[in-house]
Amino acid sequence: MRTARTLQVLARSWAVLAAAFAMTALCTACSAHDSGKITIGVKFDQPGLSVKKPDGTLGGFDVDVARYVAARLGYGPDRIAWIEAPSGQREMLLRNGQVDYLVATYSITDSRRQKVDFAGPYLLTGQSLLVRADNTDITGTASLQRHKKLCSVSGSTPAQRIKDRYPGVQLQRYDTYSACVEALRNGAIDAVTTDDVILAGYSAQNPGAFKLVGERFSQELYGIGVRKGNDGLRQRINDALEEMERDGSWRAAFVDNFGPAGFAVPEPPPIER
Ligand code: GLU
Fold it and tell me: Solute-binding protein family 3/N-terminal domain spans which residues (predicted)?
């Protein structure tokens, strides 16, 4: 009798220990460990991708991806803590352990790979231009060289590309794309540049006010940022993304969120194991 009980207690303690170990292995940088939540960084102001609505809830393609992955890691919607992750703060948020992962229109690049790791990619997009609907003199990157005022965001790949390749452009860097779009609306700048899915979201939200011009002039592959060296989490996120693509949820999320902006459903980019 007594031996059986002792064994039972022992087995229970092992189970608790194993669960604790699994949690630690999953997120070595879990900022909200104590609350039993997982912390995810997203944008709050990019319609179609990730937007915080007036009622406080979040919606968009990145949010759907983030929630799907969280569910596969064992965190339902009520166990997610959302943090705003502006472009210029993403590496810092991961390095400081303030978020467990980032789903924030975050392009995979070699220079970012020095500081963080990426799961995915889960979406291919590219840089483009947004102008006011009545604009006729900006038709592509070439027309920017005539000292046009172009807005993009600090710490983003599109801002860096303009700085490196289009020296004739007056680049103004703001903290968020929504601030750029406001400046475009009131005439303070001539165009906004970033990934076309982001620009299309603003355009769909403001019918008749803006238009996208020219072709994509880069390839942006969105990855899910994790802390450098957290390979266990990275692999589990990759498993979740694969599952999301296989079971039709990826496609459904694309149609829901980018349908209004008029994008045809592409094939998801191959995941880099
Ligand atoms: N995908 C680009 C980047 O990661 C632009 C979008 C953004 O700033 O979030 O920099």
Answer: 37-261
